[in-house]
Amino acid sequence: MFRLDPKMVRIASGVGLASAPLALGVVIVLASLDGSAKDASSQATARSSAAVRCAGEQSYPGITVEAVVDWSRSSASPAPSETPAPSPQEGTGGDQTSAPLPQASGNIPENVNASPDFLALRDQLESAIVAYDGDVGGIDVAIAVTDLQNGETISVGGNVLHRTGCVINLFALLGAVSQFQAGNASPDGLDYSIKKGIGGSYPPEVKNFTQSIFGSYWEGTYYARSLMSSWGMTASYFDHIPFYGGEYPSPNILTALETNDILARLWNEQLFDYQWTVYTLGVLRDSYWYVNYILPGRLPPEATVGHKIGYYADWDGWVNNDTGIVTFQGADGTKNAYAITYLSQLANTERAGYSFGARISRDVWDWMVGKYGLWQPPTPEPTPPPTLEPTPQPTPTPAPSDTSTASPSPVESATRTPRH
């Protein structure tokens, strides 16, 4: 019931913003300037029937897409004007209506290092996605899963471009933490903005903490964008903090595989040192209860989930996304973890996207627990009955003994505590 009013506002705002450019019959000519995005015809990519429909002009009434997005529309020179944006509702994970996605894809090889058992999970997920796409009348779903014990990754539609909603603000957080680690800024005094902006998926507070750190929230966006590029994210793109992109901006874009790759690097301390890795994971785990309905939605209490959610109604359907790291204590007592990215778009209803994400998140959990088991605390020994104290006996005179000191027995060192 808590999310009912914000949901209705998001639907109304998405439809309202969409109607203006579509009613004008705008013709948009988009061209790639940096060459980073590959033409869709150059690489075969798994797409749902909804994605295929979206690639055709019938999904864009009044709009003609000739190539790919002109990234210069949000380049650093000149800077976009910081005009007030519509105030998002409490708890929103949304965004404003954006231009169509470019006809491009990512280029990370899919399913190349996975074991046969892991590939069987991939096939199970693909079958579920295909069946669900037909059941709900079209939805474009992508998923990537990385076993963080061995680095194996599986994906379905892992290179397909997706709108992001507030999931893109994960990279605003990573940009902020990069500055914390470098000593150029401090989280002191920003605790509420970071918790509310990330854990509550509330864009105004993301704007606030990036503006505090960088002097301008647009400078924070540019910095995060440069980090993404330096990390090899050639298909993903951080155009704007949701709701603060100006009028009809280029879309924020992620692929499941590129996002999961960043999560794996975070876990393996390849983005930050130990201190700031722990800090970042702590922020992602400190989410408000009302955003815990996709990846954590059907998971049991044994699961610890650090994640970033994003959702909104765009002019061609609902976007419902979630990405994060799930940890649990395996049967041998060690901590196990996996990264998972669920991206969906073009859904006819909000529920169609988020409920399916929760369902296949549980499928992945069941597979991981089937592989590693779950820790079961040992059954306590029954309390023995009290014994009668023996009658005291006279203490015999001790015999002379060897006064040499015995060598202490070696003590086995304690098992290393998992780092994260």
TL;DR of this structure?
It contains ten helices and nine strands. The chain is of the alpha+beta class and 420 residues long.
Q: Describe the strand arrangement of the main beta sheet, using strand numbers.
A: 4-3-9-8-7
What's the tally of helices?
10
- Helix content class: 25-40%
Chain-averaged pLDDT: 79
- SS content category: alpha+beta
Protein model, in words:
The longest helix is centred in the last third of the chain and has 23 residues, at 350-372. The protein is an alpha+beta fold and 420 residues long. Mean pLDDT is 79; it is low at 1-45, 52-91 and 403-417. It is globular, with a radius of gyration of 26 Å. Strand 7 and strand 8 (317-329) form a beta hairpin. Strands 4-3-9-8-7 form a 5-stranded antiparallel sheet, sandwiched between helices. Strands 1-2 form a two-stranded antiparallel ribbon. Strands 5-6 form a two-stranded antiparallel sheet. The protein has helices at 4-23, 49-55, 116-135, 169-182, 191-199, 203-214, 217-230, 256-267, 274-285, 350-372; strands at 38-39, 104-105, 140-147, 153-156, 162-163, 253-254, 304-314, 317-329, 335-345.
